[in-house]
Amino acid sequence: MPKSNVLAIILAGGRGSRLEPLTRDRAKPAVPFGGAYRIIDFTLSNCYNSGFRKILILTQYKAMSLNRHISQGWYKYFCREMNEYVDIVPPQQYNGESWYLGTADAVCQNVFAIENEHPEYVIILGGDHIYKMDYSKMLDFHVANNADATVAAIPVTCQEAAGQFGVIETDESYRIGGFEEKPKCPKCMPDNRERCLGSMGIYIFNAPFLYKKLAEDAASITSSHDFGKDIIPKAIGGGTSSGRIFAYPFMDENRKQEAYWRDAGTLDAFYDANMDLVNVDPLLNLYDEKWAIYTFHPNLPPPKFVFAAGDRTGLAVDSIICPGSIVSGGVVNRSILGHCCRINSFARVENSVLFSNVNVGRGARIRNAIIDKDVTIPPQTSIGYDVEADRQRGFTITESGIVVVAKQEHV
Fold first, then answer.
1. Omega of the bond prior to 21 within 30 degrees of 0, cis?
2. Which of the chain's ends, N or C, has fewer CB atoms near its CB within 10 Å?
């Protein structure tokens, strides 16, 4: 059931510098994932499945690819006549001539658009995380606790949280008594000395409380204008402007034994999250009809596998092959092929992620690699077999040795 009193704000303007070169000319939320999807599809699908049908996407850097994806794939799911929409909001510079200074400043600079919708509740989301979550359950928790703001939280190891997560301290009722943004030495949970409660960067605010906190933050010359660094800590600070702030324990709609939530903020994390999908029983279930992940599906023919002639057999095993792709006498093993890829005769692709429109020449070999879109691999070329040689050719090499070839790179 659509919830007309909720406005969702998706922050999709970060540089995503740790994913270079995949973010060289696209925002991180627009980076392809799992062959057929973009990273932002998961947050948008969560909104849609949760009944949150009023969505503003705040963009900033390299937004063209993201804008195109939203217009091609997402407008059709919303009915304007029923006051449903997903709107892309570029920087308006209503409050000055600067770009967004932080997550809170991004929302503050667009507060006019929020106020125009007269929402009762505002949910703030990142557009660059991979997970399944019913936000309506978090809203029910927020309302039941008469909260001014609620922060989604997930247990993580203290080692994982150090310098990476906001760390939350709560009482038995989950009311937040302490919040520290990305501490080097996180405070562990009272009942588990190895784990702490990490912020997922998902916030629900009562709209009047949000307006108040944004105005206070905008007036502060010492603030970094960030929700995790400034808004939430000051909201629980105990002063006259503090409020009832609660932590919502993450409830996973992925329906697996362990909760699934991935940042995929580095190339190695991104590669691992993709490689999980080709396992027999992947941690992330993309085939669950009860919690569908929506995206733009181009009008393309089915994938095709041709030749059954000994060593010239078109074959793919333990792999995801998207529409429009042709495996023509080559072998694909534990890999993901995006739309319209071509694997020519005697070529071999192993343990790799290929974005759309990659052409692998006759006899070429690729392993342990991420190949961005519109790349042509010449015949007999090898990638991922000699890391030093790949580095000398100008390719990016990750800490774990994954080779990354940029979009339209000359190989």
1. yes
2. N
